Amino acid sequence: MISVGLPVVKTEFFEDALKSIINQTYGDIEIIILNNGAGDKVRNVLEKYDDKRIRYYANEKMLPIIENWNKVLSYAKGEYFILFSDDDIAEKSFIEELHRLSQKYTSIDIFHTRVRIIDENNKTKYLATSFPEFETAADFIWHRIKNYRFHYAPDFMVRTKALKDIGGFVDLPNAWGSDDATWFCLANHGGIVGSSKILVNWRESRINLSSVGNVKQKLDAVQKHFDWLNNFISNDLILTDGDNEILEEIKKNLGFRISVQQGNAIRAAAKNSYTDLIKIPLLWIKFRKKYSLNVTSLGWALSLVLKNIRK
Q: What is the pLDDT of residue 306?
């Protein structure tokens, strides 16, 4: 059996997400719904579906993101676990494809599929890149650091015991990079397997968790994420033949990746208007010393705002 955890914080697209899991071609699943401060609408949606695979839980008070994710995990009874999202959509063969890969690679703990990024109207914005069926942990991290790879949380399936054995999802502030950190840990023992079939629609919208928090919180989160990553690649990353060169490339590119993420954090404070553009350099100056911001982070933030203005 495969456990699908669906923590619900936002309800705008929840029913679409739920239906996409109910309608999977692979049926040996349990669907764990955890209401984390989303109100009565979650119950109202569930009442429409007479499906014995659904189990419903509700938190007495709203939990922080990672604590909530790990609580969903604690309810999982299946051999494998998927943390799905309350606003994303899975294609019908998503779980079937992941199950097929798990039967082919019986020693692997982590699997994923390619992603389509959609907007609030379910229209395609862009596609994530394809990837080989098997990668070492080092190669997987390198592609992410180079920004060659877009992946999220709902497009992954992991061995439930393996995830519980590492203590669940890595707890980083505002969950910034927590999914990446968790996937890196699980890929570290034997590598990662993926399907280049586009089987998850990840929604990019104004209510994404990545849009939550002020600039200082975001910059703090970026700093802690890269502190964690530096420690991981220096002390924990298991290398196989040919990975030493990849590790050196990871280290060389970390600085640019940090600048990009810092730029993303600063950019979030500005709306897509020329008058709001002045906020970017002012914020950069304000936080420059505290977070060692360089000119690349400023340029990246400005370019993102300008790109959206011109659309």
A: 86
Identify the residue with better confidence: 14 or 204.
Answer: 14
Backbone angles phi, psi at 26, to 5 degrees: -90, 120
- With residue 260 as reference, give the H or E element that holds it: helix 243-267
Looking at the DSSP assignment, which residues form a beta bridge with residue 12?
Answer: none
* Token pair for 85: 């999202």
Angle value at C-alpha 239, between 235 and 240, nearest 5 degrees: 170
Contacts of 60 by beta carbon, 8 Å cutoff, 6+ apart? none
DSSP β-ladder status, 80-83 and 156-159: antiparallel
pLDDT (mean) for 171-191: 95
CB within 8 Å of 220: residues ≥ 6 apart:
173
Between strands 156-159 and 110-118, the pairing is antiparallel
CA-to-CA distance for 131 and 2, rounded, in angstroms? 24
- pTM surpassing 0.85? yes
* Secondary structure (H, E, C), 90-109: ECCCHHHHHHHHHHHCCCCC
Instruction: Give per-residue pLDDT as tens, 87-103.
Output: 999 999 999 999 999 99
Coil, strand or helix: which one is 171? coil
Q: Which of 87, 84, 77, 8 is nearest to 43 (CA)?
A: 8
List the Cα angle 78/84/85 in 5-degree steps: 155
6 φ, ψ (degrees, to nearest 5) = -130, 85
- Which two three-digit tokens encode residue 198? 């586009």
Domains of the chain: 2-210 (3.90.550.10), 213-310 (no CATH)
Q: Which of 72, 78, 135, 139 is nearest to 108 (CA)?
A: 135
- Tokens 């209510």 belong to 207
Report CA torsion sign: 278, 282, 283, 285: positive
pLDDT tens per residue, range 240-270: 988 999 999 999 999 999 999 999 999 888 7
